[in-house]
Amino acid sequence: MILLLRLFCLLPYNCQFLVEAGLYESADESARREEVLGELDKIVKDWVKQLTSQRGYTDQMVEEANAVLFTFGSYRLGVHGPGADIDTLCVGPSYVNREEDFFIVLHDILAQNEEVTQLQPVPDAHVPVMKFKFHGISIDLLYASVSLLVVPSDLDISQEAVLYDIDEATVRSLTGCRVADQILRLVPNIESFRTTLRCLKHWARRRGVYSNVTGFLGGVNWALLVARVCQLYPNAVPSMLVSRFFRVFTQWRWPTPVMLCAIEEEELGFPVWDPRKNPRDRTHHMPIITPAYPCMNSSYNVSTSTLRVMIEQFQFGNKICQEIEMNKASWSALFEPFNFFEAYKNYLQVDIIAEDDEDLRLWKGWVESRLRQLTLKIERDTYGKLQCHPYPYEYADPSRQCAHCAFFMGLSRKEGVKIQEGQQFDIRGTVDEFRHEINMYMFWKPGMELAVSHVRRKEIPAYVFPEGYKRPRPQRHLNHQHHSDKNDPGNGSPDSQLKRKHDSTGIDDTEPCRSVKRASISPVHPKTSSPRSGNVSDEPISNNQQKVTSNASGGSQDSPGSGNQDQTKCSSSSHASEKSLDSVASGSKCVKIEAVCSGDVTSKHVDCISPVKDSTAPTVAVSTTLKRVAEKVVLELVGSESIGGNNAELLQIAETDMGNVLVENLHFGGNGVPQSGLPEELEV
Predict the structure, then answer these.
(1) From 57, 143, 210, 233, active-site residue
(2) Where in the chain is the domain with CATH 3.30.460.10?
């Protein structure tokens, strides 16, 4: 009873916190949205009447011709915030089709409207959609042609009869509206549901787990999870629902499905989620089932890696909520942003480059939609031992003169899986396969390039951190060499990072380590106007840094050295803080590079030696024996493995010369098979 009273007392602050966080739009913006929807409704009605007249129907038929506009998603559920897009569905008669009438005729009508900008048709998407801005408001417009000659203004699309004699693409287009309506019918208290959902969507964004496209959960997924908790606690206030949400899903045994109602099986013949009949459904890691027929898994994008991340975040939320209930923490602690750039020792950096902002928007949309595949391929090729945490936020480098953005992925080895001592992971072939798929983009233009690189935590570029944040530069002497990660910089959360515009300053090429001159592996391939396959080559880059780069032609280009920077202002050359997938550990010196070229494939072999001990480093007073210091170094290199076997040999090296301990890098290669070496780079 006391706990219940505490949660009731928390309710006013909970709602006030959401208001102060800017999660509610103003009355003026709400009215503006209504006006925009009204204008769009008139446009689609006139469009259908125009087509009806052109196809020779009677005047009465033209007069009765109609299209109905529905909304779904966050706007329909009543949980949208300022600047959110509006998911809309246009339902038209049977003689108005999607392929020509919607994506060509209506597209041209919208293109001629001065208030329509950023018009982008996506006809080959899983759910075909037309994206654009209307009076500055983002619209996602879907189309469904139903088996009616005249669409009534009061059409109820929640009835199964609307699904008769339509294809599966149309069913998927109708599903969003049908699911949103069904959720509102199945929750016991709509206002409590809305407040709780707003709170948890805000929390998910702050913690970096709100993104369906990258393998986390999107708006409808979070709505279904919250709705299920509302069903389990029908009389609870939002504060208690938030707390119970984390308690329930911390203990949930995935892949047990989350369902708001029993799965319906109608006689219409559309496939429904059923792991007993469909082998593919058995592979889903986090099934969250839609409540409207045909029932589907709305979270099929979730992988083992992203599920692990979300479970960890649920556990974090549950811990904070327990502290809130005991008056040991406030609500602000729950919404602390996730320190992504402090969470891992190794990252993949995906740089997306284009000639201008419009090209970047199109190119980035394509690459971002495929990033989930990179996560799945890494899991596949390392047999699940190397886990990938994609971060769903983009960052822009203001020093580049061309349009640019970057995504990051944290890398870590799977906990609880025994890994051989010194094991490394080779994923160069995995990345090559990913780049090949990216290069299949049919709307590629010159200047669209992609670069995937491996960076360590201390080499994360400065532009991902908040304005004014200065990263400490620890001295490279023995005292700090093995503890530099503890002093790593702070938070690169999306809420604190303001995206900056591209300016005309040059690329910062600060040298963190000794440069090594390298020879070109393959000749320069000029850009072409159409995608094609090409050789994978190394770039001779100053600062001893390599980068796996790609443009849509599939070829990499050799860029000149640091003395010719003017020629590479808009190329995908390495930033000083970046390393390629086939580079060696920071401080190592590459002494030999062999290239074996066969056809369009270039395989690289890099032999590395450990860095030479810095003779200028100050003498460090050691209070313990050299034996104990060496043991500590070895433990940091091999993680939790016991000292013995090859480790004893490494211990002998450490005792002989503390400055010459061989530190192998996390090694990426072509076949995805783990190689021998020390896994220091994979330590969490």
Answers:
(1) 210
(2) 27-183
Helix H or strand E encompassing 173 = helix 168-186
Question: Is residue 140 among the annotated active site residues?
Answer: yes
User: Which pLDDT tens digit goes with each residue over 289-322?
Assistant: 999 999 999 999 999 999 999 999 999 999 999 9
Is 571 part of the annotated catalytic residue set? no
pLDDT in tens, 79-97: 998 989 999 999 999 999 9
Average pLDDT, the chain: 74
Catalytic site residue 493?
Answer: no
One of 3.90.1150.10, 3.30.460.10, 3.30.2130.10, 3.40.640.10 is the CATH number of 27-183, namely 3.30.460.10
Q: Specify whether domain 187-334 bears CATH 1.10.1410.10.
A: yes
* Active-site pick, 45, 57, 87, 347: 87
Instruction: Name which of 408, 452, 411 is nearest 431 in CA terms.
Output: 452
Catalytic residue check, 74: yes
- Looking at residue 317, its amino acid is G
* 450 three-state secondary structure: strand
CA torsion, ordered 599, 440, 455, 522, to nearest 10 deg: 30
The CA radius of gyration of the chain, in Å to the nearest whole number, is 28
Catalytic residue among 143, 145, 181, 201: 201
Among candidate residues 101, 140, 181, 538, the one labeled active-site is: 140
Domain with CATH 3.30.70.590 in the chain: 340-417+425-464
Active site residue 201: yes
**Residue from 74, 303, 399, 583 carrying the catalytic annotation:** 74
Q: Is there a catalytic annotation at residue 642?
A: no
